[in-house]
Amino acid sequence: MITLDGLTKVFPAPDGGDPVVALDGIDLHVEPGRIHGIVGRSGAGKSTLIRCLTGLEKPTRGRVEVGGTDIASLEGAALRAARRNIGMVFQHANLLDSRTAAQNIGHPLEIAGASRAQREQRVAELVELVGLQGRERNHPAQLSGGQIQRVGIARGLAAEPKVLLCDEPTSALDPSTTRQILRLIRDLRERLGITVVIITHEMSVVREICDDVTLLENGRITQSGSLLEVAADPHGPLSAELIPLPPVPTGIDATVINCDYGDSETLRTSEDLVRLAEQHAAEATIVAGTIETIGGRQVGRVQLALRPIGAEAASGIGREQLAQLLGELEDRGVVAREVVA
């Protein structure tokens, strides 16, 4: 559905200095019907990427293909027609205060020249689709933050696009409303079969809704793949952010190790790690951890406190015993390392 091939965007420096490379050779393919997250810190190139996807910015080099159409090659009426296949949802819906919710939803259709009857029919469908029944005649000042975002989503779907681009759609919402909006986006994908791209800095959004995720850093892709692949890769830059490890408790008289698992074919749960430690004569206690179920598979980062089995006093395990355990964990696809105080 979306293919970026060597996408590069260079901005000239305003003071005549070195040009700014906002996007540097981006290659990315988003399959139809998937929810794809684009993450990265401020300045990574996320905003420039979304502007290139909508044709608001022309690439310096490369292709931007949406639904088989090279957006970067279009101008004028052809570009406006292609944009109707791309819906946009923003962090702030920026509704027209003088218009009702229904009128805001129908505004893109009015601009496109749809008849009043066509607009009214489509708006009625969208109001039901996003759960705004009874709020059609309310103005933005009479709506909650979640309801305003629902209006924004409905407006983005007005022209029946094949792709929905969401730019930080939940960052201004409270956690409960965020979950509701994410469920709505996921339900819309299921009901309409649309492809969704979410630009976000919130890893909780990625965990909750995305099928795939791409990390941008300094205008380049540093990691991309399915959510399970990325989360289960302990060497990748996104794993620790998707599954953060809480601080280790203090005052533990034991050998403490960190274990990142999920890529292992034989050790798939924290209980598996405990049982393997016991095979090396070590009593293992989970003292901290973050565990997520992604794609039906458990992925986690845990800290284990290791003590000799049967030891009368609390103490850590021997160095040779620890080396053997760490070696077997590594052989089985678990990244394990000792935590040194």
From TrEMBL:
All copies of domain ABC transporter, residue ranges: 2-243
Gene3D superfamilies named in the record: P-loop containing nucleotide triphosphate hydrolases
SUPFAM superfamilies for the chain: P-loop containing nucleoside triphosphate hydrolases (SSF52540)
A GO MF term: ATP binding
Keyword Nucleotide-binding: yes
Cellular component GO terms, alphabetical: plasma membrane
Function: Part of the ABC transporter FtsEX involved in cellular division. Has ATPase activity.
Subunit organization: Homodimer. Forms a membrane-associated complex with FtsX.
Family membership: Belongs to the ABC transporter superfamily.
Protein name in the entry: ABC transporter
